[in-house]
């Protein structure tokens, strides 16, 4: 009887203690493993990464965190083609995709062409890759500090966007491709991710709801101080566990990408409006973007990747709604990126948008990435077939919200 009462007592104590801990206002968006494969046939390294990621995910979930995705990025594809053409590489990439689908792991192969290289066949190849795989992400670099603006690659990237828009419904193929501008290795977010060096991992976090909570109790005067204190308090345990995982499984820990990745139930638009008390796009939006970015780039944590503010239009219901209301333009999004990041992300554009126009957009993003030191930007553009400016579009992808096609001024 005593043991029974004691057990009941411990159970009640545990329930009461748990109830005193408020639910977390953030999620682990991704644990991303970066690997260096030996060649296109190296599925062994991929399978080892899958095993590691599953162990790491279990460690985080056992600690009370929700892990939304696990991901693998390799070094840039052109580095391990081994003399094969892109077409010859496609069957091997389909094998990577089969593993990824089986184990529910997203996969990134980095840049498919070397910096500032043009290949007239790459757009057609990209269409085949999108059509024949489900989880393979890829990119092309349009700028770097070493070579400046990559005008040849910009042309190839624009051709990919136009071609891939015609694959599948609603231009959604471009969800898996980006033009990356001055992006470093080790970004845990896709599609810009690529790896360099020893096997390692990084963490990305979804936390606009945490920003909203902090800003609901702050003003523009004390928001910076409040946000820094709260983010360090919340994310330090995430880092501590990552360090333990690194030691346990002998995988190098690269850090946390402190970009506040949004979701359909976690709006960065809501967070910014809570701070400014104005609709996103209005006066003080730029100030709020700058404030958030200043904080997340200067946290007392080991950081990596973008670590900048994300403003993905059709991944955020409030951003999409404000775009529908005409409260900001594509050019203004790029202006906000000048004080934050991460560029132009999932922007719905008219299906008839010309390749030349896409090239000019990429050139602007590339130029901005080189204006400031260590500015990592990317551009993911959705050309919607058959749609014109102002038309409403919906998507099959469950991570995207309905929106109107945006105008290019």
TrEMBL record:
Keywords: Signal
One Pfam family from the record: DUF711
Signal peptide from the UniProt entry: 1-19
Database matches in InterPro entries: UPF0210
Protein name per UniProt: DUF711 family protein
Gene source species: Imperialibacter roseus
């Amino acid at each position: 009887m005593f043991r029974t009462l004691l057990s009941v007592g411990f159970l009640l104590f545990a329930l009461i203690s748990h109830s005193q801990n408020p639910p977390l206002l953030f999620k682990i968006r991704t644990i991303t493993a970066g690997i260096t494969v030996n060649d296109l046939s190296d599925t062994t390294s991929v399978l080892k990464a899958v095993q590691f990621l599953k162990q790491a995910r279990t460690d985080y979930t056992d600690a009370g965190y929700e892990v939304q995705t696990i991901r693998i990025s390799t070094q840039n594809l052109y580095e391990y083609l081994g003399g094969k053409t892109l077409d010859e590489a496609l069957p091997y990439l389909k094998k990577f995709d089969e593993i990824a689908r089986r184990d529910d792991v997203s996969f990134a192969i980095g840049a498919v062409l070397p910096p500032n290289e043009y290949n007239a066949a790459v757009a057609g190849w990209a269409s085949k890759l999108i059509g024949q795989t489900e989880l393979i992400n890829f990119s092309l670099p349009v700028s770097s500090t070493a070579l400046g603006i990559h005008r040849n690659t910009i042309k190839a990237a624009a051709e990919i966007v136009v071609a891939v828009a015609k694959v599948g419904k609603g231009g959604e193929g471009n969800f898996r491709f980006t033009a990356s501008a001055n992006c470093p290795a080790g970004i845990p977010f896709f599609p810009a991710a690529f790896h360099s060096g020893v096997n390692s991992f990084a963490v990305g976090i979804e936390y606009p709801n945490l920003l909203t909570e902090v800003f609901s109790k702050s003003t523009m005067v004390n928001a910076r101080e409040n946000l820094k204190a709260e983010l360090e308090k919340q994310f330090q345990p995430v880092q501590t566990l990552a360090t333990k995982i690194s030691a346990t499984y002998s995988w190098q820990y690269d850090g946390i990408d402190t970009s506040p990745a949004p979701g359909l139930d976690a709006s960065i638009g809501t967070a910014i409006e809570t701070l400014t008390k104005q609709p996103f796009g209005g006066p003080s939006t730029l100030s709020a973007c700058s404030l958030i970015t200043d904080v997340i780039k200067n946290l007392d944590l080991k950081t990596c990747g973008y670590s900048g503010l994300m403003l993905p239009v059709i991944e955020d219901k409030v951003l999409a709604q404000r775009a529908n209301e005409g409260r900001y333009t594509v050019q203004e999004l790029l202006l906000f990126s000048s004080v934050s990041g991460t560029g132009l992300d999932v922007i719905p554009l008219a299906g008839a948008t010309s390749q030349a126009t896409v090239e000019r957009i990429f050139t602007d993003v590339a130029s901005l990435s080189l204006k400031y030191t260590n500015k990592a930007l990317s551009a993911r553009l959705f050309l919607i077939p058959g749609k014109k400016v102002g038309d409403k579009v919906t998507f099959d992808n469950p991570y995207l919200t309905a929106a109107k096609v945006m105008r290019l001024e």
